[in-house]
């Protein structure tokens, strides 16, 4: 058996020990990643609760449609469409030339394309968006760049009276 916090139960052949240690190292790496992201964004409360299930790593270029569920972190390049029903983080090393859609979105890198965020969009100091933005809540730090039309507020289909 393998326990997530490092408990080792051996079946006598030593294989269980090796698997348990690898599993423990995976958890340790995940906690280090979350801690690093929290420091990067200077907001431990907002980042600690999000565990990326998909990471487009530094040095990786993806072309086409990336559509899925779960948390998504982008460190590399994406060209096309980028969509998740959960939260997304565009890190400072990321270059995105795509239409982007997410529940909550944190941008520290660069997006060239339209952005649709159902919840909160956080544009960090190093963040840049070149395109139209639709979001419920917008937070922009000093030094961030937003070039395009921006629509904020509750996103319901209300007509003008």
Annotation, overall tally of beta strands: 13
Strand content: 35-45%
Largest pleated sheet: 13 strands, parallel
Order of helices and strands: HHEEEEEEEEEEEEE
- Return Rg in Å: 19 Å
- The percentage helix is 10-25%
Instruction: State the low-pLDDT regions, or none.
Output: 1-33, 39-48
Work out the count of structural domains: 2
Distance between the termini: 64 Å
The helix-and-strand class reads alpha/beta
Count helical runs: 2
Overall pLDDT: 77
In short:
This protein is of the alpha/beta class and 161 residues long. It folds into 2 domains: 1-42, no CATH class; 54-152, no CATH class. The protein has 2 helices and 13 strands.
Highlighted features:
161 residues, alpha/beta, 13 strands, 20% helix, 40% strand
Describe the structure in your own words:
The chain has 161 residues and is α/β, with parallel strands linked by helices. 24% of the residues are buried. The chain contains two helices and 13 strands, in the order ααβββββββββββββ. It has two domains: 1-42, no CATH class; 54-152, no CATH class.
Give the helices and strands, then pairings.
Layout: H1 15-41, H2 44-48, E1 54-56, E2 61-68, E3 72-74, E4 77-84, E5 88-90, E6 95-102, E7 105-107, E8 110-112, E9 115-123, E10 128-130, E11 133-140, E12 145-147, E13 150-152
Parallel strand pairs: 1-3, 2-4, 3-5, 4-6, 5-7, 6-8, 6-9, 7-9, 8-10, 9-11, 10-12, 11-13
